[in-house]
Write a structure and sequence with these properties.
- The protein has 4 helices and 116 strands.
- The chain has a 4-stranded antiparallel β-sheet, with no helix packed on it.
- The chain is flat and about 140 Å long.
- The protein is mainly beta.
Amino acid sequence: MVRGMVQCTCHTGYRLLEDGRSCQDVNECAEEGYCSQGCTNSEGGFQCWCEQGYELRPDKRSCKALGPEPVLLFANRIDIRQVLPHRSEYTLLLNNLENAIALDFHHSKELVFWSDVTLDRIMRANLNGSNVEEVVSTGLESPGGLAIDWIHDKLYWTDSGTSRIEVANLDGTHRKVLLWQNLEKPRAIALHPMEGTIYWTDWGNTPRIEYSNMDGSNRRIIADTHLFWPNGLTIDYAGHRMYWVDAKHHVIERADLDGRNRKAVISQGLPHPFAITVFEDSLYWTDWHTKSINSANKFTGKNQEIIRNKLHFPMDIHTLHPQRQPAGRNRCGANNGGCTHLCLPSSKDYTCACPTGFRKTSSHACAQSLDKFLLFARRMDIRRISFDTDDLSDDVIPLADVRSAVALDWDSKDDYVYWTDVSTDSISRAKWDGSSQEVVVDTSLESPAGLAIDWVTNKLYWTDAGTDRIEVSNTDGTMRTVLIWENLDRPRDIVVDPVGGFMYWTDWGASPKIERAGMDASNRLVIISSNLTWPNGLAIDYESQRLYWADAGMKTIEYASLDGNNRKVLIGSNLPHPFGLTLYGERIYWTDWQAKSIQSADRRTGQARETLQDNLENLMDIHVFHRHRPPVRTACQVGNGGCSHLCLLAPLPKGYSCTCPTGINLQSDGKTCSPGMTSFLIFARRTDIRMVSLDIPYFADVVISVNVTMKNTIAIGVDPREGKVYWSDSTLRKISRAALDGSQFEDIITTGLLTTDGLAVDAIGRKIYWTDTGTNRIEVGNLDGSMRKVLVWQNLDSPRAIALYHEMGYMYWTDWGENAKLERSGMDGSGRVVLISNNLGWPNGLAVDKAGSQLLWADAHTERIEAADLNGANRRTLLSPVQHPYGLTLLDSYIYWTDWQTRSIHRADKDTGANVILVRANLPGLMDIQAVDRARPLGFNKCGVRNGGCSHLCLPHPTGFSCACPTGIQLKRDEQTCDSSPETYLLFSSRASIRRISLDTSDHTDVHIPVPELNNVISLDYDSVDGKIYYTDVFLDVIRRSDLNGSNMETVIGQGLKTTDGLAVDWVARNLYWTDTGRNTIEVARLDGSSRKVLINNSLDEPRAIAVFPKKGYLFWTDWGHIAKIERANLDGSERKILINTDLGWPNGLTLDYDTRRIYWVDAHLDRIESCDLNGKLRQVLVSQVSHPFALTQQDRWIYWTDWQTKSIQRVDKYSGRNKETVLANVEGLMDIIVVSPQRQTGTNACGVNNGGCTHLCFARASDFVCACPDEPDGRPCSTIPGVVPPGPEPTRVSERSQTPPGRVDTSTTKPLTSLEAVEGNCSDKDARRGLCTHANEAVLATMGEGLHVSYIIGGLLSILFILLLIAALIIYRHNKSKFTDPGLGNLTYSNPSYRTSTQEVKIEAIPKPTMYNQLCYKKETGPDHSYTKEKIKIVEGICLLSGDDSEWDDLKQIRSSRGGILRDHVCMKTDTVSIQASSGSLDDTETEQLLQEEQSECSSVNTAAATPERRGSLPDTGWKHQRKPSTESEV
């Protein structure tokens, strides 16, 4: 109180009125943001409250959402990321995206959805980033907005390209255009499923924000002022408001859900806001300009923060939290509202809706199919516009691989839509909904631009503007034939009139015209030929009998009667470029390229024009699909008109005619077709084989439909008698055959081929001959591939074409090697002479003209086709220049050849070379060609009816014939019969094959033994008694056996193997010995795999090769571990003795000479072959310079060995080490080698009769033998005493005896059965007889003495200490070694590059050789998926560390993984690897070899020589380099 004045105040919650005395309640709820959500005012106070799912914070004003911490989910173009708003934690959800723009999520289903405007797809994935899949993949142009209805499980999206808002189920099914009218560029979209409403922004010419019910009803504009680019839109469900951003006005605004109370929240500091979301009291938005995510208070716009910046390109954003998708009432209930398709909510209820184009049949049901729709092609897609509904929205038919669709037609009977594609040159079909898609025709098409369906007889007619033909086939593409091939010049559209039997087509070549003919090509007639420029679409009006056409040059749509009279212009204005044309009902419809629209008009007057769709690029053909085509009765409907093949309609009076598939003639009855082509050309085109009939007046190629994938078909031959084609594929390395109709396919030669360039069928003698440029051989076999024989193998460089003259007994071939030549021999390989050897370059094709007694050949280097007499005289040039001839053939008076440069087949007169014509063009990849006339008699077989009395092959020669045997087998003295196999031969393994080389014959050709399932064969042996091969496969970790002919394969040992390097058969005692480098053991079993026993498992480091000497009772093996050695023991493992342990590197192979009683071995580190006697004495070096020997064997005076580096088998004289010869060259992955010979497995011992009386294992020794038991009892009682079969022992005894003490091998091998066999200890006579005693070589427990002497105790303790130290040292050594051989660490390898897998060189770097021995380690190699299951094996001579000092390891560089998972890198050249891997060669891949040369400094500097020349077997224009000539065929 001052000077009598009074000051009044009010309590909290009240305010003083203007009178200065009265107080009035304050309405806090009227103040914006006073409470977060709900506010209730009371007298003198207020109360804030929160919506369901939120709780009041301690400040009693703001609300906190219940549940987890919120996460901001945003699209970043190339990825989708998550960020925690309060902690800025930043995680990647999905990456490697193209252009992710719009985004939303479904919280309860844990799904994220996004749109990609580059791929024009809508995708979805799990919220953990897994299971990415397409939801909508067609008909999108710019899907910029996306929203999920989490209550009714629907997906809504906007597309500013198509100007539509669409809806679909969450998986994309039942897609419907919801809103399409008055939309320009719809962008952001937000849903309020609890209210049943949609909100969206549109930034077209009149920017606005609209809403409607979620079924599309009740649409309203809620804001259309002060908007320019309304981008982002979000709904605050708790606050009942909407927020949006405008990127042009740089503002964030808000309004009530009906658009009232609009207000700017932030109007500064917004360079380019794009998307927005809201959570609790905060707004979050992305900005393109600042590349950031920002936040602010949603009421005031204050407290602005940058959540995350420096982003790639932030797009859409959402708050991932359950309260952003609160629960609500599902208006459709549990049964989809009873709707058959879509149930869409509205404000109060729901509406049943149908997918786009489908009409409703009742309030809840939709039609199951479309009855009528407009069908149009748009190059990259085919669309339909339903006439069953009002919206006329176009819908993309979901088809795969549509590249350039032009012509269309349809058949309502089977619901099929047909279309041509001028990019893939194919005709395809699918059901109208996109299902059952298939290619109908895809060969010999060049530009199929017109298509018509004869719906009465189910025929497909088409025009081809490339080949200038009109063709027809069944609607599935079968029985195709050419109808019209003359006087066509770029035919375009075609229509058929099954009612009248006519077809009509437009032709817009040099003289544009419209023609008609019968549907069987009869009565052809030009009906319109004037005032035409580019006549495009055609349509028939059956009712008024008129033909309509569109002319893009004249810019008109015209019509005339069906005979061309009464021509009138229907529409002559505003037609910039009409293309497709169709009629339906009273309307005519057309597409226009320039107007980019589909239009229609009245078909009679041309008035009442309408535009159905505009802004459509690349519009092509157009049709109306309906179900009211008129039924027509024709003669073809009854028994196919009596036709054997095609029944085609024709105008009356004829009505129809029969015709045959392309190339086949109709017989005289006018109904039946010949069984096949009689006279034809047949040619190879790398990936297919085609025929061109010479029976008909035009040339059309027909593909032989063999049900097999061809990779590189080169040479072909035909057997006219059986009607079969034979071909070689140099990538698959096979020769195959099939019937000319494609049936009866079979492979006849599958092994021993590299590049089979030439092939000839001797139809008279029933043989097939072929040349192989890779192996440089000419071979022959029966037509089924049996009895294969090498005819010529010497002095061949690159044999290519081959031709036969059976009647004369001659075989001719070209050779385009260093000195190109043309040679001749008898068809048995005898009497070989060079006919022509000068002025030849690349003599490719070759043909024998029997009638003219001349030889013809094509030379691609000299660019000539030449001729000479059959003896090479009178040489003359027929044709020059020809660009690049390859195959050559002749028939009657013509020669035919294929040309790589022109990609064509040509024909000329055979005598003069004149009258050259083009037979077929545009055929890339042309190879061999043959001309065949099946009507021509074959000729007389020189071998007569009884095969000339030969048991195997009967081969003609000029003066008669000779009998011959398959490769490697000698003819018997009767000169007629052969044995079934050679007597003496080498048997060797190379990765996935086992082969033999006969030593009976002079040609050392390898013959594959057809053992199935070979993966990585390392070691081999054989058993002469049963005629079996035994082999180890380290890929499968098995030991198997088969007969010597490859049959009866069985697994002998299938478990407990790691890396079986060596294998030896004791043919006397019937035992099998093997070394296991992985387990460091030597084991034995019976030959059938039973009675398995570990013989030796101590002091073995890396045991490799193994050999037995049954007569002497000895076992020998090599060990290339830390200290390399060669050891010997008795066959029971006793009396073990080191024979050689000095001056050894990697003793790989080992073999015994049973005659001279010497051991031979190869050393792959010291590069030599050595020998010594059976006691390790009299050691001598046989050969001192061998590159990298692996295995060896001995026969007669020769030592044979395999060499990894030279990839060859070689031999030297075993006495002198001289006369070194290469037996076989160029073999990848050579492994073991043995000799099969009657002289090899001789001699016997005590185990040879009745197994020595032993129950299980019998081991012979020098002067006695022992019986032994297996490690694992097999259920049969085992005795170690000969001739005694013990009764089954008591169970306790069995368990005691069968348990091998840990750490000790059960050496239940008995002591020698001699007089020394005194029974020791407590062994009773009875037990001794049963073989149950503890023998001297087993541990015997000592009895404790009364008082042990102190010195004994001390000595014992010292001994124990010493043993412990030894064990510790061994553990450390093993640990270091295993550390190195761990597959995870990789191996140090020099790899032999895998043949034909890479054309690049593999760089091999050198490192100084460590100061320790290198060791051979076989490794499991990871496959391409880097999994360490049973994959490929790597034979690695790696470096194993031997001491605890890792300094050596540090010097070695990290290993890179090269292609295909092969480790190829850094190592001294002497460490080596053969990557055991199938060689996947193709014709144009080349073999790359690295030859490493070692210098004196222990590999300290290794040079990598250049790769060897690429294999000349390849065909030159595919990269086959021809190293020895200055210009190569591959340069063409």
